[in-house]
Amino acid sequence: MTATLKAVLAAVNVLGLQTRERFDLHDRRFDQVDRRFDQVERRIDDIREGLGARLRSVEEGQAEIKDLLIRALER
Predict the structure, then answer these.
(1) Residue-wise pLDDT tens digits, 10-19
(2) Predicted TM-score of the model (pTM)
(3) How far is CA 67 from CA 21, 54, 57, 63, 64, in A?
(4) Range 58-70 burial, b when 16+ CB lie within 10 A, else e
(5) pLDDT of 46-63, one tens digit each?
């Protein structure tokens, strides 16, 4: 094997290692983003549930007020 071929193979090995390291770095970053996205998604679900409960409470209050007004007007 010639010195030039050895140098080329060594350079290819180094580039392969660097490429793997970059992919690993991007995989870790993607995993972090994915976890953060899951947290945000859970928080949105919690907020949506809370808003739904509040909306039902407001609707129930309005129905009670409506019933009271109807009773008062019927007297």
Answers:
(1) 999 999 999 9
(2) 0.58
(3) 69, 20, 15, 6, 5
(4) eeeeeeeeeeeee
(5) 999 999 999 999 999 999
